[in-house]
Amino acid sequence: MADVSGVAASYTYLAVIWLNHKAAFTRIREMDRGLQWANLAILATLALVPWPTAVIAETARTGNLADERVAVALYAIVGALLCLSWLVFFSYLARHPDLTREEVDDEYFARERPRALVGVVLYVAAGIAGVLIHPLVASVVFLLLPAFYGLTSHGFDQRPAFFRGADNDATGTSDDPKSS
After folding, report:
1. Are 39 and 86 in contact (CB under 8 A)?
2. Residue 100 β-bridge partners
3. What are the pLDDT digits (tens) for 21-46?
4. Whole-model pTM?
């Protein structure tokens, strides 16, 4: 049963990353070499995700707490690197608004940087907590972060209405990426 839940969690995480990637590219008009490299950094770190996921699954089967601590540290490093690659991607687009569609606010990608930074900080903190306290602490954060990124995949300012509160409904914030 642990294998099925591990596969489901891994698939969900990859699906959330795909949703974020697709949402970002609906706002991009053209690519240049720098953006291609930033995008390749995301794809490269994404390709690493199955490795620490498999290590965590294997150490969970053996029940060796020391190995579990190393596994969550490894997962945290890869997660932080993935978020760091998003930070580079968002920063590049923030510095090059000419690459985005005309209807996209020039500050949109600058506003996305904190989402990536949250991930870097929380993955590192989770890894440290998983090593120093217990791997289960890290695992909780590892499950919550994809949920956060799934709910904010179209931008932090366009998260679902129940997270924005009533005051933001009057601002005319739309879920349509063309209105950003």
Report:
1. no
2. 28
3. 999 999 999 999 999 999 999 999 99
4. 0.83
